[in-house]
Structures are given as structure tokens and as C-alpha cells.
Specification:
- The structure is a single chain.
- The protein is an alpha+beta fold and about 450 residues long.
- Helix content is about 35%, strand content about 30%.
- The chain has helices at about 5-10, 80, 145-150, 165-180, 190-210, 225-240, 245-260, 265-290, 335-345, 365-370, 400-405, 430-435; strands at about 15-20, 30, 40-50, 50-60, 60-65, 70-75, 95-105, 105-115, 120, 125-140, 155-160, 215-225, 300, 305, 320-325, 330-335, 350, 360, 385-390, 390-395, 415, 425.
- The strands form six sheets. A five-stranded antiparallel β-sheet has the order 5-4-7-2-11, covered by helices on one side.
- A hairpin with a 3-residue loop joins strand 13 and strand 14 (about 305).
- The longest helix is centred in the middle third of the chain and has 26 residues, at about 265-290.
Length: about 450
């Protein structure tokens, strides 16, 4: 009896003429063909369709990988002869091997996202957190490697069993990419395509080596800030859309007046409406009066508050400083700041420019200090002292101190002003002593 006739009589073995896999699902990656207690007929066919690969495993070891095509299954075929050697010595099991079909098409629209916020330092917001999500696409490009490293002996392997690991690896790589790029969060939207392509290119070698798959696409759909930061950003955007807040307030007041006039309501409502009307009327009257004064501006419902001619811009090419003074702040050049200092030398005038560690007084900025004329010294006897004497404390001129010394010559009269290390007797000051007649004329003005 021939070998194949003996095999046909064994334990009701079922002979397979064609081995193929028709997949109707969209998420199956690996399918093990059911051949337990079955035999493969000599001369049978193996059909591998486009988007598939067939992997033969003989006694636990990968034997051969077949790409798309139709193959004759014969012991005379060199590529699969070793696959049938087990039949020669183990008739109790017609076939000691497995056939796995691997789906090599692209698995698209796989979701990824950050389960926890990513911490980073942003140029605009400082230390902040972001979240991101998107999609990616992968395919199996090395069926043997994928079977060895991922599937093992699983008879039915779907995308659900691997996408979790792929997602975690992609989020980790995305975090490294976005943090190391140092791109401001508000500018990331313009780099989504570039960063996505870079991610796919960078991660594919690692996926191929460890899983036998290729990352064919990586898409960043959105990057978002924490809700509290987004609310502040929305308010800032709203203020920019409104433009002149004074004009918007006037417009809102005018609408409220019109609504109150069209809604008589009850007596209490009328009184409340009247009170609101008087208050808003006063506001409007004051603004209208301001509009009649030079530089006061005029309210236009279409254009808002036109506050007159804007201040002249800094001269082209002139360096500008951030200025913080007693009554205003803004960005001005050195000449403009010098003019403000000259008008009020007693006030605090601080300036700052890019690259400085902090704010500086105007006197420490040569560009400003050199444009301010020196201040005339006070006339003789006009410089004031902090005085402490028998009649109390006060800030007095030299002449006034001399009067108090003359009124109580035996008293203890002390003076102090900026630059002194401590209080000094009034009679030791030359300008006071000169007025007392005990030390000659005071020194000439310096």
C-alpha cells in the first residue's frame, strides 16, 4: 500500500486540496489555519492573496514565509519539503506543523492620545501642561519577525492585542519630540505635518526591529492647553476682538439706556431704571464733554472712541525702552523719557530694555541721563535739613534752623540730610553757622 493510501486510512483524516484564507474582518492581523488532525494532500494548492502572507511552522520552528501567489504543496517542492518530513515517521498525527496567515495590509485610523498631560517649558506661558491626540497607520512588513516576537502560538491575533503597546510607545516618542523641539505651543499647529512625518520616519526602524511592523503614517490632530489656561487665553482674545474697551463700555451703556426706555416695568423698576439712567447719563455726559475738549476724542458707534491724534511713534532706528513712571507707562525712546523726567524730577522713573536683569532708574541709563540738563542747586540757605531740636522735628531750610538755634541757643539742635552718616550739631554746618554770625559768610554755591 502506498504512503498516501496509508495516510487516507488514518483516523478519518480529512484531506485539503486548497489552503486559503478569506478575511471579512477589519482588525484581524494573524489567523492560524485549522489543520489539526487534518492532512494536506500531495499536490494540493496554497493560495496567498494580495495583502496576505503565509507562514509555515514545522514542529515549533518557522519553516517558510510565502508572499502573494499560488503554490503547489508537494514533498517534491524544495521550499516546503522539510514541512512534510514529519509525516514519514508520525502517522498518529498526519501533520506536525501550523500554517499562519498574516494580514499585511495597512491598519488605518488607529487612535493615540496622551492619557496624562505632558509637562514642558513654553516660551509664551512658561511651565505648562499640554495634551495631544491623533491617529496612526501601521502594517506588518516582516511576518516571520511579527510571529516570533508578538504572536507566539495565538491562533487568532487582532489589532486590539497590540495597539495598546504601540500607543504607549508612540506617546513616549511624541513627548520627546515636542519637548526637545522647543516650539511654542501657539506655533505647534503650523508644525503638525512636519512633526508627524518625522515621527513616522523615526519610529519605523524600532518597530521593524522589535515587532516586524512599519509605521506608515502618524497624524497629530490637536494639541490643547489646560482648561484654565484656555479660559484666560479666550479672554485675552476677546479683549483683542473688542479693541477699545472704553468705546465698548459706552456702547453697552447706550444699549442699556435704550432697553430701559422701551421697558416701563413696575414703579420700583422705573425708579431703578431712572437711577441707572442718571448714572449712565452722567458717564455719557462726561465723555461727551471730554470729546469737546482738545485731544478729548469723539465716540463713533462704528469706530469706537477716537481719542484724538495718537502719540507720535518713536523715531525710526532709535532705541526704545519700557518706561514706568509716576503717571504712565509704555514704550518710548530716550528723548521722550528724558522729557518726562525733566517735567517731574521728584517722581520715580524706571526703565527696562531687553537683556537687562531688572528695571533701572533713569539716572543709571546714560542714553537718558545725558539728555537731562543739570538741576540748579538751591540758593544759599535754601537747602533743607531734617531738624531735631527742643521744639520737635521738622524739615527746615538753613535759615529756619538758624532762627530756632537763635531762639534757644542753649538747646540741643541737630540736623541731617542725605549723605550724612548721622545727625550733626546744627552749629557745625557752615551755612547755618554763617547765618548765626559766628563763622563768617556761608560757602559759595558749588
Amino acid at each position: 500500500m502506498s504512503f498516501w493510501n496509508s495516510l487516507k486510512q488514518h483516523a478519518g483524516a480529512q484531506f485539503l486540496d486548497v489552503i486559503e484564507w478569506l478575511d471579512d474582518s477589519r482588525n484581524t492581523i494573524v489567523y492560524r489555519f485549522p489543520i489539526f488532525n487534518q492532512a494536506i494532500q500531495d499536490g494540493g494548492k496554497l493560495v496567498v492573496r494580495e495583502g496576505q502572507a503565509a507562514v509555515f511552522v514545522n514542529e515549533g520552528k518557522l519553516s517558510e514565509v510565502f508572499g502573494p501567489g499560488t503554490y503547489e504543496l508537494s514533498t517534491r517542492t524544495k521550499a516546503i519539503s522539510s514541512f512534510f518530513t514529519s509525516i514519514k515517521y508520525a502517522l498518529n498525527y498526519p501533520y506536525k506543523g501550523d500554517i499562519y496567515f498574516v494580514n499585511t495590509r495597512q491598519f488605518m485610523d488607529q487612535k493615540w492620545g496622551t492619557s496624562n498631560p505632558i509637562m514642558l517649558r513654553d516660551a509664551d506661558f512658561g511651565p505648562t501642561r499640554i495634551r495631544a491626540f491623533g491617529t496612526y497607520t501601521f502594517r506588518v512588513t516582516d511576518p516571520g519577525q511579527f510571529l516570533r516576537e508578538v504572536v507566539g502560538t495565538d491562533g487568532l491575533f487582532t489589532t486590539d492585542e497590540i495597539v495598546g503597546q504601540l500607543k504607549r510607545k508612540l506617546v513616549s516618542s511624541f513627548t520627546d519630540t515636542v519637548v526637545s523641539s522647543k516650539v511654542p505651543v501657539l506655533d505647534l499647529g503650523a508644525r503638525f505635518m512636519e512633526m508627524g512625518e518625522g515621527m513616522a520616519k523615526a519610529m519605523t526602524p524600532w518597530f521593524q526591529q522589535h515587532y516586524g511592523i512599519t509605521l506608515t503614517d502618524f497624524t497629530i490632530e490637536n494639541v490643547s492647553l489646560p482648561p484654565e489656561v484656555e479660559k484666560v487665553l479666550d479672554k485675552r482674545t476677546s479683549m483683542g476682538v473688542l479693541g477699545d474697551m472704553n468705546a465698548f463700555t459706552q456702547f453697552q451703556a447706550a444699549n442699556a439706556l435704550e432697553a430701559a426706555a422701551n421697558n416701563p416695568g413696575s414703579g420700583g423698576g422705573q425708579m431703578m431704571g431712572a437711577g441707572m439712567g442718571f448714572a449712565m447719563g452722567n458717564v455719557m455726559a462726561g465723555q461727551m464733554a471730554q470729546a469737546q475738549t482738545p485731544g478729548g476724542g469723539q465716540f463713533n458707534p462704528q469706530q469706537g472712541m477716537n481719542a484724538g491724534a495718537p502719540p507720535p511713534p518713536p523715531q525710526q532706528g532709535a532705541q526704545t525702552f519700557h518706561y514706568h513712571g509716576p503717571t504712565e507707562q509704555g514704550q518710548f525712546n530716550a528723548a521722550q523719557i528724558a522729557q518726562k523726567v525733566a517735567q517731574d524730577r521728584s517722581g520715580t522713573h524706571n526703565v527696562w530694555a531687553a537683556g537687562w536683569a531688572g528695571w533701572k532708574p533713569w539716572s543709571q541709563v546714560p542714553e537718558i541721563a545725558n539728555q537731562i540738563p543739570p538741576q540748579m542747586p538751591p540758593p544759599p540757605g535754601g537747602m533743607k535739613y531734617h531738624y531735631n531740636g527742643p521744639n520737635g522735628q521738622a524739615e527746615l531750610t538753613a535759615a529756619e534752623v538758624a532762627q530756632r538755634v537763635s531762639a534757644a541757643p542753649d538747646g540741643r539742635h541737630l540736623v541731617w540730610r542725605k549723605g550724612f552718616e548721622g545727625w550733626k550739631p546744627a552749629k557745625e554746618m557752615p551755612d547755618i553757622a554763617g547765618l548765626l554770625g559766628g563763622g563768617g559768610p556761608p560757602p559759595p554755591p558749588m
